[in-house]
Write a structure and sequence with these properties.
Pnp Oxidase, Chain A; alpha+beta; 4 helices
């Protein structure tokens, strides 16, 4: 059985559709001592393709992002197909990105539009969380990545496909 070749345009469209179906992402960070941490967070996507998260300073992943935000690649994220919807657990559709991080607080101009978009997508909980002093916005900018469509269908992602 031969597999159809996918063009870059088709690949970008497929990744875009997949990203729009997701409401949360898996987040991989590292502590100041070098200990890895897996976590997750709900997100929105900005017009520029960044992932925007509203996180508490008390959360361990926030502390890790703060500590490493000036490094080349402070975190990795993954969006993955739901187990219930996949045909084979070994070949779940997924996209991973290595990201740079920018932290924003309520005094910065991007705060209000991002909070409004988060509330639109994720509901009233954002209204409450955004009023709490320990919550900040984190903008994760993909630098490189990898998209897996299934068995034998992995595609490295560079600046043209992020």
């Amino acid at each position: 059985m031969s597999r159809k070749t996918i063009t870059t345009t088709e690949l970008i469209a497929e990744i875009t559709r997949f990203r729009k179906q997701q409401q949360s992402l898996l987040l991989a960070t590292c502590s100041e001592q070098g200990h890895p941490l897996s976590s997750y967070a709900p997100f929105i996507e900005t017009e520029t393709g960044d992932f925007c998260l509203l996180l508490s300073d008390m959360a361990e992943h926030s502390q890790n992002l703060h500590y490493h935000q000036q490094t080349q690649i402070p975190c990795s994220i993954m969006l993955i197909e739901d187990e219930v919807n996949c045909r084979n657990l070994f070949a779940r559709k997924r996209v991973t990105y290595q990201c740079q991080v920018q932290v924003s607080n309520r005094e910065q101009p991007q705060w209000t539009p991002a909070i409004e978009k988060l509330q639109q997508k994720l509901g009233k909980t954002i209204e409450l969380l955004s009023t709490l002093a320990d919550f900040k916005l984190y903008f994760l900018t993909p630098q490189s990545g990898n998209y897996v469509r299934g068995f034998g269908q992995a595609y490295p992602l560079d600046s043209g496909c992020l």
